[in-house]
């Protein structure tokens, strides 16, 4: 049984599990080693964590120091995090995809004294900037043969083999000292600095306390009480991001669930079949891809197979709608559902491992039609909403109550307000206890107050004061409203497009409508202070290749945009058809087709896959100008 109290901190969660839920020898972590999946017990995890703690104590690291990690999800991440957390050290996890300049900025801004690196590429990245990182004393490679990589001459930083740290013996005296340090870690102490990926400006270090994390886990488990100690989570989203850190790692630490680490995004489908998870945290893009592949697989052959697939989805839809209305589907519909399950749904579910209880989607808005599709299959998708600054969860779908297109009910213990963007008047405030499934209100900026809100931005009091007002409301910068008692996200405040006629266009819902087209992978709307909307479209590469028999060389050609008229016409057909679902001022009038996706390396998107609007508009300004010049040319 999970036990939370006023003294709970991140390092006490796992020990509570061993004390009250599992035996020390029970499995906690699972990872692929060679051709086999290896299981690691709670006992071994805690022993490795103690080895990490004793090493850093020997090196003079003290409570409040910052230590870094830059690596993929793995047991090694957990050993390091658990080890440093129990002696009061602050975890600074850095996205592996960041540039050298961004890595150097975070190391210096946070004052990292040691950094764990997970592979040769990341090791070289740190070595290149290490000379300019004054506080950095230790680089710890967590991979074999790092000695083959040349270290710059004169580098006054010690390189230490992570394996030597993990395998060091820990004396009884050291164990006693670690236990003592753990009791000195307080809930109000900072547990982690997580740097915002930010679509604009310099990254800011968000200070999240042990209380932020532990309380967030506690209330989320209250909201989703079906998670128990028998679950197996498959982890593939980066632990450097707050969503995976809380929704998978910390939940499992608190509840005693197993964590299996996926090998990579490319091998995720294979790993799902091998691990057979019961719960997964995911992002909408993954669900959209599963949706697109299932639709394509079910309908592309045509004939009877396509008819059965379409019929099954219609049956699933009728069952879902009936259940959500509180009605019994009835004998005939129930029998049809059984046939649909056997012929269609079970085959799709088997590709996920066949045991999924539910998936938690976060990080961006899930298109309503995608959520409904999974609901029709009988695969439950719970949506959540939050930011790095809110630990992160502010709201999450209840397991028994689904409202597609929303991000769920307010979690216990906090307040969420909707504030008028222009007048700053608070339109409405909702809590977990005021929930009313028929309540609705107009939209505005989402603000939040309560236990989930960060301590502040590290060494940035002015930015902290700008984000958290005098009444303790944190301003999220997101636009939303309450719909059927649940929070609904409209868009980001900074994303809002105001056209030349003063009409407000929120890009995300418009983009999601166009993304119904299987031909479109990604879409970026343009139109601020302009007479109409244009877009940069990234096509679905696989569909494009199959339709036009294109080789890989086509995507390696010079030129950012595809100019072939037949491809333009092919996409335009869907654009025109889908535009009928939108108001005239929201419709795309002209568009450009980008040859390749927006890139992290090019600085066009953040590690959380959000497009950096200012950078993209500046970089592709000539192409954008060309779209708006078309009508001028026609007039002339």
TrEMBL record:
GO terms for cellular component: membrane. Pfam families: AMP-binding, AMP-binding_C_3. It comes from the Bacteria. Signal peptide: none annotated. Keywords: Fatty acid metabolism, Ligase, Lipid metabolism. GO terms for molecular function: long-chain fatty acid-CoA ligase activity. Gene3D superfamilies: N-terminal domain of ligase-like (3.40.50.12780). Residues 23-458 form the AMP-dependent synthetase/ligase domain. InterPro entries: AMP-binding_CS, AMP-dep_synth/lig_dom, ANL_N_sf. This is Long-chain acyl-CoA synthetase.
